[in-house]
Amino acid sequence: MNPLNHRVPGLAGLIVSPEAPFFSLIPDGIHLHPATLTMAYRANPHKCILITDSIEMAGMPDGIYPGHAQIPHTQNKKGNKVTINGTDTLIGSCISIDECVRNLWKWSGCTLPEAIRCVTENIADLMDLTDRGILEPGRRADFVILNEKGHVMETWLHGEMAYKRQRLSVREDSER
After folding, report:
1. Tell me: the pLDDT tens digits for 121-137?
2. Which of 4, 26, 105, 108 could form a disulfide with 12 if both were Cys (CB 3.0 to 4.6 A apart)?
3. What would the pLDDT profile of 90-129 be if each residue is shown by its tens digit?
4. If we measure between CA atoms, which residue out of 154, 172, 174 comes closest to residue 164?
5. 33-38 long-range contacts, CB within 8 A, separation 24+
């Protein structure tokens, strides 16, 4: 991608145009610097969609892991970042979508509901879905209940509870 230039704004300039497309961001601090994420989000929050490229080591402890058919190299997981062992070559990250929401909230200064919109209503708008994306009568009752720090406490699908968290870890409880 060409960098933002005062005469040729490239893709970065497209997100502020009247015909701006939806755009996706990975708010893990690895793919995008927090300041870059903030600029993109603030340019057009109603077109911003948060995604993750979380790989199979999500939830695993830090350490060295064997390669596999897709990445045949030994892999080094440190926090959310996974690289080819002994190099700085990024394989991917292990961030969850709820952590993406918390990062956008923390880094951009938006509200928690504004960050949540980037994983709910904006996606429904992109896909022209009118049966979900926001909570209102007549829509599908798929939703997540978060605590005041943005951690998932319950998940509901079609109006039925599918998941309930028993308690937060000490680290999660001390965030934000």
Report:
1. 999 999 999 999 988 89
2. 4
3. 999 999 999 999 999 999 999 999 999 999 999 999 999 9
4. 154
5. 34/103, 34/107, 35/107, 37/103, 37/104, 37/107, 37/108, 38/107, 38/108, 38/109
Are 29 and 104 in contact, with CB atoms under 8 Å apart?
Answer: no
Residue 145 identity (one-letter amino acid): I
pLDDT at residue 16 in the model:
87
C-alpha–C-alpha distance, residues 172 and 176, integer Å: 9
Catalytic site positions? 53
d(CA 96, CA 100): 6
Residue 124 has φ and ψ, to the nearest 5°, of -60, -40
Q: For the chain, which residues score pLDDT lower than 70?
A: 1, 170-176
Q: What is the DSSP string of 80-99?
A: TEEEETTS--EEEE---HHH
pTM for this predicted structure: 0.88
Can you tell me whether residue 158 is helix, strand or coil? coil
Residue type, 162: A
Distance set, CA 162 to CA 43, 150, 152, 158 (Å): 35, 18, 12, 9
